[in-house]
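Example record for the data management plan.
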Amino acid sequence: MTEHKIWCGVCEATCGLVATVEQERITKIRPDDTHPNSQGFACPKGILYPQVLEDPDRVREPLQRQADGSFVPVSWDVALDDIGRRLRASIAAHGRESIGCALGNPTGWNYGAFFGMFGMAAALKTKHFFTAGSVDINNYWVVGELLYGHNLVNPMPDFDRATFALIVGANPVVSHGSMATIGNIRRRMTSIVERGGRIVVVDPRRSETAALFEHVPVRPDSDAFLLVGMLKVILDEGLQDDAALARQTTGADALAHLVADVDLDVVAAETGIARATVEQLARDLAAADAAVVYGRCGASLSRFSTLTKYLLDVLGIVTGNLDRPGGMVFADPFLDAEAFTKLFRVNGYDRWRTRVDGIPEVLGTSPLATLPREVLTPGRGQLRALVAVSTNMATTSPASGEMEKALGALDLFVSLDPYITETSRLADYILPPKMLLEREGFPLFGQLHYGVPNASWTDAIVPAPEGVRDDWWVIDQICKRMKLVPSPAPGAQLLGRLGVRIPPHVAVDMFMRIGRHGDWFGLRRGGLSRKKLLAHDGAIKLADGNATGVLRKKIHTKDRRVHLEHDVFARELRRLLATPSADAEHPLRLFTVRELRSQNSWLHNVPKLMSGGRGCRLRIHPDDAAARGIEDGATIALASRWGRIEVEAKLTDEVMPGSVGLNQHWGHKGGWKTAVAAGGGRYNDLVPNDAAMLDAASGNAWLNGIGVEAVPLAVPAPAPAVAATA
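Corresponding structural encoding:
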């Protein structure tokens, strides 16, 4: 029996864990009390992760799809050779632009797959590169680029020193923090109140987080109205921190013009929050000694999500809470992904537009919502072949039915996935990857936002099934058959022609070693290297917290100031004020609900996580239910302008009247039996993907605030009794 300190690769919290291994099996996982960031916290998802590794439904060898839709096992050579042949044929006939790449959320914890897919897209020089970021995070990347000079620069909340926290559209008690890797975040937040501070949670639902603190209900998709209303109050009443604005920013004078046409009575009508409450909330934020302004998925799924993210940042900046203790601070990752992406010219915004819809690129990627039209619209640059890693886009993308149709129309679709999902079942080949704990790795995404900076790099602790391979190796083998190297590095293609292919761990290690925390190849005593981290059991603490007074070192604008004035935000605000919000035919506003035992769509095949009667249920206020004749537990039809599903109703006053909440990513198909048996309606069948309905600035999907109507399903009349015969 051996024990290994590891990290959880399920969600952004990236908690420290201790795994017990006996006879090459993980027999137990428990929280790591010594981890500098998570400090002994872990949730059921990480504890039960070994059940994913041992899942009988897991794909353990390459599968080839047959004409009837079934799959048969094939060897790796057969699969890779055929994939390479068909990709070369597509390039010969239609150019490299005909090939696309896609990656899903789990690659944020799989650096080899992540860098491999970015490198493959760069080598192909294709615009058809799609990521999960365009569902709920591209707005962050756009604001980071425009305000701070780099997509990945995004200030995070310093809960440990804050006296006031405004939380908009986030449920960190359940999500454990997003774009803020703060261990045991519930405890961190309750400590604010214990030392005399306040937390105000703005959410259409009395979520698990809102129930602990002060809850201000808000109509879904109206966050931008609330935030711009608060900004207007602060500016009109002269509550801004002029000294901080002069010291840190340019373009602050434009803010008064930006909010000039905002009517606080309209703000109250759109948000459902009384004008007096909006005004007082703005004054309280401005008066706080140290305040954080934090929003996440709820705010990032609106139709105006980039404007919303901009206003969240601006509220922190104008009140003097940027780069100060207890405010919004800059993280200190041990691998400087900002410098890495900048060196290889990956970062950027609006350097080109998508072929069909003309939507700006973000970090070199196209919005996932545009993929169906890129496949189904003929012409130069049409997407004809796709290689995807760890994405269940047929469920997680807007207009799921359109995505299924597009994937089925591709000349070649290759999916690297451990399951036959509703997405991979449409692939020509399913290629099974190694999973975390079967391969080495470090928490690539989580380390970008650590509240307590630390470093870890772990090796495989159990062997992988014989027929699976590392994602990066598979990507490299596919590229090799196209005579490409999956890398954006200058000279990489030349080295490839000479037979030199640098594995991702070598490239990342070299870059880390010359970074702020690196060992400079032995010249800096105590610095980091991959070898040192692999030899260390657990995480190495780098600091007690994130430093402040570092803004000029952390941002990438030429003048080292935050740039507040941009035409895109003024345009988006004008569009917000001119866009009708009411839908008489679909008067209820739908919003997403985060679940403790789910991580997007990929943990629904773990029986213990699915126990206790879990399912897909629409949360509806009793008053709204009564007006429609809906009873608790009844199956209802839920319809939007774009689709219709059937779900079970759950009557609860935790949602505000006029709003309904639904948990996402149910209604599975494919070969993962527990997930399929769970049933449920597919949220994204109700969601539009047409360009006019996306966030115009970032291409983010619009999921929160869509108008819907709920009606009870007709109950069949009982069959007439048949009289007994003598």
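Summary line stored alongside the record: The first strand starts at residue 2 and ends at 7.
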